[in-house]
Design a protein that fits this description.
By secondary structure, this protein is of the alpha/beta class. The protein has 2 domains: 15-84, no CATH class; 99-364, Rossmann fold (3-Layer(aba) Sandwich), CATH 3.40.50.150. It is built from 13 helices and 16 strands. Helix 2 (92-110) runs parallel beside helix 8 (195-207) and helix 10 (271-280) runs parallel beside helix 12 (317-325). This is Methyltransferase domain-containing protein.
């Protein structure tokens, strides 16, 4: 793994990977790195290899080959015992869901060869160069968020051009980091608190032939373990509503380069959200989360230029979800067409479009945006 942009998530000091015994050579005689005491859970603890902070007074463990750059997990000299309360923000939700999401990722990684994700990705690995340059058109080739297709298309279009870019997928299992590499990104990073998700992303990248360009770390959006001005683009799908947004927003802004783009696809608390969740329940009943509202986004992301929230699914999203729960199956092409009709009708009725419960959050770090010789691609409204 390359090391030039990794930093301590709190002090922002550079990190380097060394054997544990090397990291401990410069500690006071009789001292050694020790794990913190975490409330209610076990830390990763001492590992044979660690990521040592520049001042030599802190180190981060390695789990399943990935740097664990969650701040509560930092190892410190034995004369500096640390007790960290992970039941408070920004750690509470991460640590309460760590076993659940990491376990899901590990299970998915173990069965990746028979997964729909890999089967879906095979279409992209077979694309000719002209097809990759056209990202994200046609939408049927690149989109995967079945009931958020419109929002995802907005987000992908906002991030392009990807050719030659360094991109960060923030949260999730790496599906989109691999997509971006296949679309021409020079390098992609995956940052998730859950090492199980990193395992899945790494396995997927290996099977798609891009493992050498994907780098993964366990870290939090609120305390990103990356140096300033590291990325041309950041993408997140279904994760922003898990963040402590007033902390994560400025961190995203910090690690973006001048003119860098941010895009997220998220659920939104529209008028139909409460009715829909009461009737259908949440998609994932095993975790607690609060979906976004305008108040949670506008101020924390205020450092981004031209911040835009684009709504979709005002009329049909929950109908489609209800029918799916009832056993009906819809092809993505059908869902796309229904969504386009929904958006057109909702846009014609004042304020109706703004009630859509699926959104794309789009912003740009102030500065000069990247350009690409190919220019902007034609907006293609059909899915194929």
């Amino acid at each position: 793994m390359r090391t030039d942009i990794l930093v301590c998530p709190t002090s922002k000091q550079p990190l380097r990977e060394v054997p544990l015994e090397v990291a401990e050579r410069d500690l006071p005689r009789g001292s050694a790195f020790q794990a913190p005491l975490l409330t209610g859970c076990q830390p990763v603890g001492r590992t044979p290899t660690v990521w040592l902070r520049a001042d030599g007074r802190g180190a981060y463990p390695v789990e399943d080959g990935f740097p664990v750059l969650r701040a509560p997990e930092m190892l410190t000299p034995s004369d500096q015992e640390r007790v960290v309360d992970v039941t408070v923000e920004p750690y509470s939700e991460v640590y309460s869901e760590l076993l659940h999401y990491s376990g899901m990722g590990r299970a998915d990684a173990a069965s990746i060869d028979s997964s729909t994700a890999l089967r879906d990705m095979r279409r992209l690995t077979d694309l000719a160069e002209s097809g990759r340059v056209a990202f994200p058109d046609p939408p049927g080739t690149w989109l995967d968020a079945k009931y958020e297709l419109g929002a995802q298309y907005d987000a992908f279009r906002h991030l392009r051009p990807l050719r030659g870019a360094r991109v960060l997928q923030l949260g999730g299992s790496g599906l989109h980091a691999v997509r971006f590499l296949l679309a021409g990104a020079e390098e992609a990073w995956l940052a998730s608190p859950m090492t199980g998700e990193l395992l899945f992303g790494t396995a997927l990248a290996a099977r798609c032939g891009v493992a050498d360009r994907l780098h993964s770390v366990a870290g939090l959006a609120e305390e990103l373990p990356f140096a300033d001005n590291s990325f041309d683009a950041i993408y997140s799908q279904g994760c922003v509503h898990h963040w402590v947004v007033p902390l994560a927003g400025p961190e995203c802004l910090r690690v973006l380069r001048s003119g860098g783009r941010f895009a997220a696809v998220e659920p939104w608390r529209g008028p139909l959200y409460g009715i829909g969740t009461k009737l259908l329940g949440k998609r994932d009943r095993n975790v607690e989360c609060v979906v976004l509202t305008a108040g949670r986004v506008a101020v924390p992301f205020g450092g981004l230029d031209a911040l835009t929230v684009v709504h979709h699914g005002a009329l049909t999203r929950y109908v489609l979800l209800a029918l799916t729960r009832a056993g009906l199956k819809f092809d993505r092409r059908v869902v796309w067409r229904i969504g386009r009709i929904d958006d057109a009708i909702s846009s014609a009725i004042p304020h109706l479009r703004d009630t859509g419960s699926s959104v794309a959050i789009l912003g740009v770090r102030p500065g000069v945006a990247r350009t690409d010789a190919a220019g902007d691609m034609t907006h293609q409204m059909s899915i194929s």
